[in-house]
Amino acid sequence: MDNLEIIKQIITDLLNKISFDAKVKIDASDQNNIVVNIQTEQGGFLIGQAGGNLNALQHIARILVNKKNGQPIQFILDVNDYRQHRLELLKELAQNMAKQALSKKVSLILHPMSAYERRIIHLSLADNPEINTESTGDDPKRRIVIKPVEDTK
Fold it and tell me: Looking at the DSSP assignment, which residues form a beta bridge with residue 37?
C-alpha cells in the first residue's frame, strides 16, 4: 500500500467511525504539499469554529497515518476546500488592511489568529516596502499589527 492509499484509507475509516458520509479526494500534484480534501454535506461540523475541529481532525489523522506508515507523511487536511477559501480571504484581508493603513496613515490591529493565519498575512505583505507587520500579544489572543513604514527623510 503506498502513502496516498494509506492516507485515504485511514481518513475514510476515521470518518466512518464518527458516522460522517463523505468522499475523500487527494491532490498529490505537488509531493511536498499533499492536500486531502473531504467533501461532505456536514462540513460545518467538521470544520468547527475558526477551523478548530478541522485542526484537531488533521492532528488525529496525521497520528494515525504516521503510526500505520511507520514514518511521517506530511499532508494538509481540508474540508470542502475551506482552507483554500480561507487562504484567499486572508490574502485579500491583508491587502485591504494595508491600503487602509497607508491611506489613513495609522496602524491597524487585526483580530486574533492562529500562527498559520498570521504567517499568511505576514507573507502576503512581505513584498510591500510601504508596510510593516508584526505579531503582538500571547496565544490564543496573538494578533497582527499592520502599519505604514515611517518616512525617515
Answer: 25, 78
